[in-house]
Amino acid sequence: MADLEIRDLTVEVEGTEILHGVDIDVNKGETHALMGPNGSGKSTLAYAIMGHPNYALTGGSITCKGEDVTAMTPDERARLGMFLAMQYPTEVPGVSLTNFLRQSVSTVRGEDVPVRQFMKELREQFADIGMDEKFLQRNINEGFSGGEKKRFEILQMAMLKPEIAVLDETDSGLDIDAVRIVAEGVNRLSGPDLGTLIITHYTRILRYITPDKVHVMYEGRIVQSGGRDLADELEEKGYEHLKASA
Ligand code: ADP
Ligand code: MG
Ligand code: MG
């Protein structure tokens, strides 16, 4: 059984079925790219994996490390080793990045992490990500650029050390800088203990990462899966040809 196993998943949003039977397996040690044009259902899948209440699972299953997660809260999923960047609020006025991170690390580890130890770990990661130390005092995502939001996601991921990470692009103009930051972060954190599903409609991300597998979503279905060859094909042809073959 795969570490993250999605089987014949159907998802409804406000009474409309958006995903019509999606299968994906992600194992630790693998990097997968889920791609596809805007509106194809990629974020719907990410929300369903994270357990967002507006996304109703009407069929199929989501299991992580053999456990059915569909009835779990986002916190429970995180404790199991799942990282879903979007489970965190986009703007929390008055909560510093440092406090927010320490809280999520404590939640995931199931114990209060002492401030001194936490700050030591944070500083180590910080240096690697190339963030400014001043960033630590800022409030969560308040006035962050697209690139800063992505750096923060990668910082969270580095601190939480998940086994399965799902990274969805932000809806509003993910710039090329942000694409590169995510790719570099994933490359740096990748290893035998981490499986990653990177969700994007930018075929350009494939210039920065070499996924083990590429999946193409179109109108709520995975219509193609493949390896590096498929990535090259997408880079060249984009998604236009999918219309014809759908
Ligand atoms: P992608 O992330 O691939 O761009 P989405 O998952 O955001 O695609 O959207 C897939 C489809 O679901 C689109 O047709 C979109 O209009 C619809 N959709 C997504 N979220 C909602 C929502 N909250 N209410 C109604 N329709 C939605
Ligand atoms: Mg979209
Ligand atoms: Mg999306």
Task: Please describe the topology of this protein.
Blueprint: E1 4-13, E2 16-26, E3 31-35, H1 42-50, E4 55-64, E5 67-68, H2 74-80, E6 82-84, E7 92-96, H3 97-109, H4 115-129, E8 139-140, H5 146-160, E9 164-168, H6 176-189, E10 195-199, E11 213-218, E12 221-226, H7 228-237, H8 240-245
Parallel strand pairs: 3-10, 3-11, 6-9, 9-10
Antiparallel strand pairs: 1-2, 1-4, 4-5, 7-8, 11-12
The chain binds adenosine-5'-diphosphate (ADP) and magnesium ion (2 copies).
One magnesium ion (MG) binds at residues 38-39, 43, 171.
Account of the 3D structure:
The protein is an alpha/beta fold. The chain has one domain (4-96, 163-244): Rossmann fold. Helix content is 36%, strand content 28%. The chain contains 8 helices and 12 strands. The protein has a 6-stranded mixed beta sheet with strand order 6-9-10-3-11-12. Helix 4 (115-129) packs across helix 5 (146-160) and helix 5 (146-160) packs parallel to helix 6. The chain is globular. The two termini are 30 Å apart. The relative contact order is 0.18. The structure holds adenosine-5'-diphosphate and magnesium ion (MG) (2 copies). Residues 38-39, 43, 171 line the site of one magnesium ion. The site of one magnesium ion (MG) has 4 residues, from loops.
